[in-house]
Specification:
Number of strands: 5
Largest sheet: 5 strands, antiparallel
CATH class of the largest domain: Alpha Beta
Distance between the termini: 62 Å
Number of domains: 2
Helix content: 40-55%
Number of helices: 7
Structural class: alpha+beta
Amino acid sequence: MPRVELSPQRYRELVEQSRGLICTHDLAGVLLSVNRAAADRLGYRPEDLVGRSLGDLLAPAVRHLFPQYLDRIQRGATDEGLMLVVTRDGDERIWTYSNVRSREPGGAEYVLGHAHDITDIKRSDARAGEAEALRSVGQLALATAHEINNPLTIIIASLQLMQTRGQVAEEAAGYVQRVIKSAEQIRDIVRNMSRITRLELSRQAPELPPVLDLRKSATPSSLPPP
């Protein structure tokens, strides 16, 4: 098979049309080129970014780490990791990057950067983690409510049985009745909390699409004949 060489024009088109986020910068971090996908994701035109420091595009909270990145890429041939960038509108995005130090014949060294925006994936993972934590708390609350209700039911039933059998002294009857009333109030509070917890857990449960919900999928027309 004959070897196909990419012309400079075809190479530029490959970079410009790529959906990946591609840039080059010098060893001081000054951007030399930025493809349209990366510029669009940041809210700029490519020409607006050329000549600016890549560090200026980092979120303020991590900008102080930029010199460490430059030091690593100058000492080694590659560097990869996560970077927190900020768009023109102030939105912070998480990019995973893989950068390579290179040099053209007779030219100065530069860094070729390639990145992907994984913000939506990270946020989805965070929401899933929060939902799982809430489910765990809810299940613990239900188990705790069950453990509280059991002895409460025994206390209330035992005191009421003593009243019915006349086993409560007259001078203690008022105290016993107050104990029963207080226990019933605790029981009702725990019962209401359990209902709320069950409702929240049901809201967090993932909804299956109809094709995966056997109750909805098993329509009369789809069932086998008897």
